[in-house]
Amino acid sequence: xxxxxxxxLLMYGSPRADYELSISVKNEAGKPxxxxxxxxxxxxxxxxxxxxxxxxxxxxxxxxxSDGRYKGGLKTITMKHNLRAVVKxxxxxxxxxDSVNIEVKxxxxxxxxxxxxxxxxxxxxxxxxx
Length: 130
Hints:
The structure is a single chain. The protein has strands spanning 16-27, 37-42, 61-63, 69-72, 83-87, 98-102, 105-109, 115-127. The chain has 130 residues and is an all-beta fold.
């Protein structure tokens, strides 16, 4: 018996989801940009940014490897959301900031309770000259 309502199970927790992302950042010529910071934010149902400012925080910022790629998960987005990857401050200062939406696909079902499942998405950001 989990509660005082006649035997129903009470649960306490918060939603969570796993993400598997692959994001590459290159210049117009296709040269990978290593050590580039990428801010990852959630989008609303209309594929618009849920947040209108893109100041990086340590918990929503990832960094590309020597091949200009980020492969990994997210800790800060706990429910199923499409995402936006933002390069606000290009490592090559001759390039303009840019962003791209990432439509995620579910690759593992949730448990019907707090776990939302696992989601996968990929994107490429090509930065143009100023």
